[in-house]
What does this fold into?
Amino acid sequence: MTDSFDQISAHNEELARHIVERASARGVTVSTAESLTAGMIASTIADIPGARWCCVAVR
It folds into this structure.
């Protein structure tokens, strides 16, 4: 079970890094509206260096 969680976590971080890189390069803002995930998506993106320039979280 831990291996699966670690794989998913690593994949999520990779996706978040890709989102931040692409949004920053394009000068666009990423925003989320989450309830079921309790802000997990926004939190994962916000943990990426440079995310503060392109991300807005709405909960």
Observations:
- The radius of gyration is 12 Å.
- The chain has a mean pLDDT of 83.
- The longest strand covers residues 30-33.
